[in-house]
Fold each of these.
Amino acid sequence: MKILSVNAGSSSLKFTLLELPEEKVIISGNFEKIGLPDSFYSVKYNGKKDRKETLLKDHTDAVKILLEELKNYKVIKSYDEIDGIGHRLVHGGDKYTESVIINEDVLKTVESLVPLAPIHNPANLIGVRSFMEVLPNTPMVAVFDTAFHQTMKEEEFLYALPYEWYQKYGVRRYGFHGTSHRFIANKMKEILGEDKKIISCHIGNGASLCAIKNGKSIATSMGFTPNAGVIMGSRCGDIDVGLLPYVISQTGKKFDEVMNDLNKKSGVLGITGISSDMRDVEEGFNNKDPRCVTAMNMYANKIVDYIVSYNAKLEGADYIVFTAGVGENSDVMRDMIISRLNFMGVKLDSEKNSTRGIKGIISTEDSTIKVCVLPTDEELMIAKDTYDLINK
Ligand code: ADP
């Protein structure tokens, strides 16, 4: 079966066409700057990437071109060869604990959750509706970033705030990156043959940690929004909200501008003033740029705070798993994190850790917690959910 996995943002649309159950990627691509004059898209096929400049008025435009390209690249002859479409949706609130087939009720519910994710959910919905317009008879599935974390206990997801804020307005921790953490949980079970206690570290441009027990999320570092938890590329992570009125009074900025700064100008970009990309920050670190050194140390420290905390919540983790851009590729950052855990007997095998493209165990034989690198695959997870639901 051919399943299309889609991730629509406010001005972008990423897609991957996969063959299931073989789990084989056929073709993938990315439409960028939709609605802007310099819009373009790229298609990756047979190890080759083609980039094409074209005006993409809106998402429906992108969807039409996408489908045409699938024919041009001869991966399908007609649209009904696409058996299902899985959409990444950011916020399912506490309404969805797993993926669901999309119908009008689901769309209404996701719409009702827009206040919780005012940027992401509308963009995701535009993506869904664009596909529905062009392919009205193709089954579609919603895969929520928040769903995996709905197994957290109340004592874990509540904030110490007036309880009515939770009851009336849904103010609580939701957690995100759930599809990635679930992929890690499932893959680890597949590899090991049983559920182990896992600390999943998804550290990319966005970053979050998740404590997984019996295949379920029991704690995660992102919160009501994705801007909580560890330090990210340009997001601040955990901060004292008491600083907000002070910053507003000192800078004369409006609340929205400050929120934008917390999301887009903070994190490693904020600290270094150079870049949100860890490759650049690592280069600065190697050249002993003081702010890059500080940023790398802060970044590692914060992840260690969560690992230690989650080790306690799990009553002793079996595995620490590194995934996503930084987790999969930065041996320097993995080393900085794990060296801070040497005191509790967690140790890296430095040769394995520094092997390019390493997958699997990177800790020493006697490490008290095993450490491994496992590439995440959210597109595959979305496609698998879609395949499972449409075959039910
Ligand atoms: P996203 O969160 O946007 O999905 P990714 O998981 O793809 O992002 O991670 C992208 C980030 O991974 C980049 O911004 C960069 O900081 C980091 N990264 C990628 N390769 C390396 C590398 N070799 N060394 C350090 N960081 C890397």
Amino acid sequence: MDSSDELRKTASELVAKGKGILAADESNGTMNKRLKAAGVEQSEEQRRALRELLFTTDGAAEHISGVILYDETFGQSTADGTPFPSLLGDLGIVPGIKVDTGAKPLAGADGEKITEGLDGLRERLAEYYDGGARFAKWRAVIELDGERPSPYAIGVNAHALARYAALCQEARIVPIVEPEVIMDGDHTIDRSEEVTSAVLHAVFDQLHHQRVLLEGILLKPNMVLAGYGCSSQPGDEEVAERTLHTLRRHVPGAVPGIVFLSGGQSDEDATNRLNLMNRMGPQPWEVSFSYGRGLQAAALETWRGEPGQVAAAQKQYHHRARCTGAARRGEYAPEMERELSASA
Ligand code: 13P
């Protein structure tokens, strides 16, 4: 298969109807923070055990098309020795890999960040492809605070995202392009829309300049929300409408899919808003998910590192995957949340 056909095929598998992506690619630092908050020992074994719990959940593959892994997890196996990428592949789930090395302070821009990881990326991508990865993720972090973000920070992050995307496609790996506008702070939804628009505009400009095949990427954006500390919070309908409106203005129809991040919204908000967007008629691209916390948080809280809690935690994860998969088709109803308590 030629390279652009392979990219198109992988991208369309990832946004198959009713399915979306599990982002299980927390760096060790982030995962340790989550484990600590749940009262779990912060060790390589516990990070592995949580991932095994998620990946071996019966029936999750009906709702999950791909899983993004972190480098450590990519090299780990189930307790009985099956490497995680092979386990996922055998379940019909596409293995993916986070390849950025994190957001670092941007020189000359007080308090702003630039995502690193381009050095040696071509060689790392070739190794990940050989290990079974068919898609990748790079997350740019854009924070809102007063005058920030600066056009400088937006510009360099967009440039790096496009360099990463071009290298991925050269390696036959579908790049998930993730410019995350962070929703911490007290900004209004108007400001969120303004910044999200500026960021998407800069990103697609750079993707064009750097000759990235739009049919072979997925975009992972934030929803357009008011900052979590803003006193005026929009309803879910307004979030869904403003988000689609912003994306339609800035994301070319050649892009096969939008896969939202959950970004700290409650599980039900993240699910309901995705559902509403999928009910608002056909869009130029598939409207799907790539949730981290939105799929895992309840399972982690239930598990708490206790082997006896694995089955109950898997039930939680399966429930969220099922609800989010339904939202992907516009078929979620809040009553579905009660089905878990009824069966627990
Ligand atoms: P959340 O869904 O928890 O925001 O994580 C998605 C992700 O991969 C952020 O990079």
Amino acid sequence: MKHFAGHFLLSAFLLFSSNVVAVENINIIPKPLSVAVQEGAFALSAKTSINLLSADAKLKLSVDFFNDLLKKTFSKGLKVGESKNLKSNAINVNVNSLLGDEEYTLAVDNKQITIEGGSPKAVFYAFQTLRQLLPVSIEKGAKMKLISIPAVVIKDKPDFAYRGGMLDVCRHFFTVAEVKKYIDILSLHKMNTFHWHLTDDQGWRIEIKKYPKLTEVGSIRNQTKVGNYSDEKAGYDNTPYGGFYTQKQIKEIVKYASDKFITIIPEIEMPGHGVAALTSYPYLGCVGKNYKLRETWGVSEEVYCPGKETTFQFIEDVLTEVMNLFPSEYIHIGGDECPKGEWEKCPLCQKRIKDEGLKNELELQSYLVLRVEKFVNSKGRKIIGWDEILEGGLSKTATVMSWRGSKGGIEAAKRGNHVIMAPNTYCYLDYYQTGDLKNEPLGIGGNLPIEKVYELNPYQDLNAEECKYIVGVQGNLWTEYIATFDHAEYMILPRLAAISEVGWALNRKDYPDFWQRMQSMMRRYDALGYRSAKHMLKNKPKVVCTPAQNSMPIDNL
Ligand code: ACM
Ligand code: ZN
């Protein structure tokens, strides 16, 4: 038996008949904890069965996922049975609670495949790994009779509990089918959280029964800025733009994600980025009139008025409906980019500052965040906010999402708050992927090649005690300049793969090794019909084999 921490390069298994399709190599993304290649191969066919050794109802989700994958290739899914005994020519699936919640072992030998996971979710990850041991053509339903899977023992678990991807559906709207596709992409990379940015200045995208104008009025802007934000000559498109999700659709998407073991965290922005809400219900703002959904990008001076009790009533009502729709432990309440100019002039905001003994408008923002947090906590949930929520004082129980670099996250971890690292310097997938813009679609700016994304170290500048507060990482896709899902795919793929590896395999990161494994993943994206950016393929690292792989005896493969 040979022991390798990563992939190996050469084709390990020969085609022994035209109907047998062999896997070229073992190239798993994100990188497993260990990959021990063994002699032989398992022949997967329509006659292989799935044998459930545990009776957990949620295992059906993993089985359905894998059978859906195989159905087009074999013309049917594998037969599923339950037996306490290991079966041959079968994928034996067991839940072993001694393993961690996301920890699994996948063992393939000549006779059988055995999956053992700490939970149905871990079993799902094992099936995602098994998927990556199948030829990429399976993704488009290529007909095969027999698939040769290399004998291997893979042990695996993630480094971080939170591995997320955010999608902004406000600046541009994406359909239910497209949102599901985004969830599929997260799932392929063993990400476990979908952060859904649902409200902003340019559109309110979630139906709230108690406040129908939020979608009747707040989901449609009159027109949209053309070209770059700062290009005044480019003007506006003079075309109304809108869209929202009904509560029925939201429930459908929550279930779809949950079936793939992905939690959706909804984001309802406050007290800034609220112009769509203020346009729908002007009493929510300090000025109280003349609002219009924002038709360009950037930050608005128009924000919610925390001087009024009716603002809090609105927020609590909205969050109540949101919490009824989303079972997530966390609710994201935004908190970023809230200019304080209107609060300085508003008599009600100034009265609130005086009555509550607050020092200034920063503390007024904290007053709002703490009050909303208390409400969310009273419903058994917790809040996440962007790193601005640190500015006027913060409770110990709020989680900080660091976006203005890692500074806010570092400060929060030092204070003992939980942190999700999503620094724009590494995780903003709306930034350009190259400095050479000739062939790039118009973007917001920046230059964030995948090599840089991969360099993210969420623990940077923290001691061992402080590191405990870093719960994970997230890639963010803001969509000011991303009007189609095809463009969204281009921006997240392949950079989301780098984020997934930071979140799953921080302690065994190795860019040349990642680059090599990504060759397969890039072909898988193509087979799935996902558009991906190809820059990384051209930027081959100077060293592509680690010493272990270089020293592998070729004739033993
Ligand atoms: C942000 O990018 N404004 C969180
Ligand atoms: Zn006010």
